[in-house]
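Hi Y.,

Following your request, here is the sequence exactly as I used it, all 295 residues.
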Amino acid sequence: MITKRSCGEVVFDVFNAVFLGVLSLVFLYPMWYVIMAAFSDPSRFVSHTGLLWIPEGFSLSGFQMVLRTASITTGYLNTILYVAAGTALNILLTSMGAYVLSRRKLYIRRFLSLAIVFNMYLSGGLIPFYLTVRSLGLYNTRWALLLPTAINTWNLIVMRTSMAQVPESLEEAAKMDGANDFVILFRVIMPVIKSTVAVMVLFYAVQHWNAWFHAMIFLQDRSKYPLQLFLREILLSGSMTDIAAGSTGEDVNNVLTMNMLKYCTIVVSTLPILCIYPFLQKYFAKGVMIGSVKE
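Below is the corresponding structure, written out as tokens. Let me know if you'd prefer a different format.
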């Protein structure tokens, strides 16, 4: 049966469509501007004013300079390492912690959950955090970017709630076949909650890809810097002399090239996440909603 829509409902839908369309344009245009600027000819782009919808000319000189800049290449490789190793460690430890907290027969599971949540809201602050990392011998090591953030409390709670919804009959059947807790976790429960796991992978990967603050605090060796920290230096500094070790002095001192390098580095640093997200998007809403149901 087709219900006739009232005039008010039609007006409301039209208003929503127009409003969300304008809002999307406002959000997407800065990204579009950066992409168009990255592919523009530096000599023509510098004289451009106003909105930018198509490239001013066409040039790949900015991307060529990015490839020639040794620090950016090093940061890119470091970031890939941090994302791969960090995400694997995050998923491993988060899943193991969530499995323990989701076991209904564990007597102290509520106490552990409250203790974990308490520390999420009330942390010691930056100085105790820094002193702890330094006292553990992690200062100026790659582990300083991986171990302190190995488990995100919110992700742990979401995965715990998702695991708690898995029928106990699956676990009981696995135990009857002689499976231990590790087999139950990785071969029974994890495949069942793969949507939640996919969302956790996306969350952790984006977190590591965008991370720069801990690197700025804990790392002194520039060969260990992630890409985002170099990108921050490019955007905030007025000179590329200290970080463009692979570029010529003329390129570094050229204002046009500096501007193009900023835009091209932003595009290069953002592109991988934009390419990965569409493959995980189908799991996003399902995974988060499954884990958000109250136990």
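The two ends are 38 Å apart (CA to CA).

Thanks again,
Q.
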